[in-house]
Amino acid sequence: MNEAYIWLTVAAIALVTAAIRFLPFAVFNGGRKTPRLIEKLGGTLPYAIMGMLVVYCLKDMRFTAIEGFLPQLISCAVVGILYLWRRNKLLSIVTGTVCYMLLVQLVF
């Protein structure tokens, strides 16, 4: 691949990403009320996406050996308990990820 092709590809990706980010602000500017459907989607999609991520992360669990499921279950419990305690999504997700990696690399 030549260098101009790579730069054009990066520029196209950046342009599309910027357009996707700025388009809602152009369409739903301060003068108009946001449609009810968009508000409803904004309220329900984050939960649906998190549910899909949980299913995706746990879909390959093997129950034939302890190391196949225990690290994931412990990490899920850490995420849930930490979120209920601190109400901080980022903290609970990062801590659960670190917990899982430590369990897989050092314990199991």
Protein described:
With 108 residues, the chain is mainly alpha-helical. Helices cover 78% and strands 0% of the residues. The chain has 4 helices and no strands. The protein has helices spanning 3-27, 36-58, 70-86, 89-107. Helix 3 runs antiparallel to helix 4. The mean pLDDT is 89.
Terminus-to-terminus distance = 44 Å
Taken from the alpha-carbon principal axes, the silhouette is: flat
Percent range of helical residues: over 70%
Compute the average pLDDT: 89
Poorly predicted runs of 5 or more residues: none
- The Rg value, from CA coordinates, equals 21 Å
What sequence of helices (H) and strands (E) makes up the elements? Answer: HHHH
Largest sheet: none
Structural class: mainly alpha
Strand content: under 5%
Number of strands: 0
Helical stretch count? 4
